[in-house]
Amino acid sequence: MPLVELLTSAALGLSLQLLHDAIIRAKERSLITRCILDRLDATLHKIYNSICH
Questions:
Q1: Buried b vs exposed e over 8-30: b needs ≥16 C-beta within 10 Å?
Q2: How many degrees, rounded to 5, is the angle at CA 8 between CA 27 and CA 25?
Q3: Which residues have CB under 8 Å from 26's CB, separation 6+?
Q4: Quick one: how far is CA 8 from the chain centroid?
Q5: Host domain of residue 39
Q6: What whole-number distance in Å separates Cα of residue 39 and Cα of residue 20?
Q7: Which of 8, 23, 34, 40 has its CA 20 to 30 A from that of 15?
Q8: Which residues contact 24 (CB under 8 A, 6 or more apart)?
């Protein structure tokens, strides 16, 4: 795997992880938007799985 692809994959993985962590923190603070955040988190999980495989 070329270095550029490796660095891009690492940056994307880190970005998705940071976004996931932010969603988890937001879900802990808000009851009203929890459903929306759950769907967003599920979408991120699907994106992450499709990229990793």
A1: eeeeeeeebeeeeeebeeebeee
A2: 10
A3: 33, 37
A4: 15
A5: 3-52
A6: 12
A7: 34
A8: 41
What's the CA gap between 38 and 20, in Å, rounded?
10
pLDDT digits (tens, 9 = 90+) for 7-48: 888 888 899 999 999 999 999 898 889 999 999 999 998 988
Listed as own residue / partner, the contacts of 41-49 with beta carbons closer than 8 Å and 24 or more positions apart are 44/16, 44/19, 44/20, 45/20, 47/16, 48/13, 48/16
Alpha carbon distance 12, 10 (integer Å):
5
